[in-house]
Design goal:
8 helices; mainly alpha; about 65% helix; DNA polymerase, domain 1
């Protein structure tokens, strides 16, 4: 354990602070800097990958699943600072509005998820469809891990139904699209690799 912060993360935070200074009002600067300073304190000595640190910190400060919409306005503001930082890490300019479909999944199903994305590209599925499916699948995979399910062979119909039930405020169309994405993933040649 060290008393320093990951160099990549430190550099990205500094770039984002410069961007915020040049493009945001004083109150926004204060709010975002407070969040970024907190992230730097949080990350001291943390040897996990940058994406894992950001996922954990996002969840801690917003009370939301990493990179999904926070439960209230203030938590959304706090989360936006982290979403902007993800853009900086991707060498993109931070956005003015986020639609909360960005997700970094770091759980035990990651190898299968990466294989699934590659397989979808190989069979000619368009990029936006793949992104939508993966976003829906990631939510399900995060749900599975809260139920101590860490292998595709452990997934049951009850897990799928329980996850869909947890989305009770979602439209029936959205629930169907979630179930289709889950089925696509679980029946793919990648799910058991």
């Amino acid at each position: 354990m060290t008393d320093s912060i990951n160099a990549t993360l430190k550099s990205a935070v500094e770039k984002l602070k410069s961007y915020i200074s040049a493009n945001s009002g004083k109150k926004s600067q204060t709010d975002y800097f407070r969040i970024l300073d907190g992230l730097e304190q949080y990350a001291i000595g943390d040897e996990r990958a940058v994406e894992e640190i950001l996922s954990a910190y996002y969840q801690e400060i917003t009370g939301a699943i990493p990179f999904q919409c926070a439960p209230n306005h203030w938590n959304t503001v706090k989360g936006r600072a982290i979403l902007m930082l993800l853009d900086v890490l991707d060498c993109s300019e931070p956005k003015r509005i986020y639609f909360y479909n960005k997700r970094i999944y770091t759980g035990s199903f990651l190898p299968q998820l990466v294989s699934y994305e590659e397989w979808q590209r190989e069979i000619g599925i368009c990029k936006s469809t793949i992104l939508n499916k993966v976003s829906r699948i990631c939510g399900f995979l995060a749900f599975l891990e809260t139920k101590d399910v860490v292998q595709a062979e452990q997934v049951s119909v009850e897990h799928v139904l329980s996850y869909l039930h947890s989305k009770e405020s979602a439209s029936s169309h959205y629930k169907r699209s979630i179930s289709y994405a889950i089925k696509s993933f679980l029946t793919s040649p990648c799910s058991s690799s």
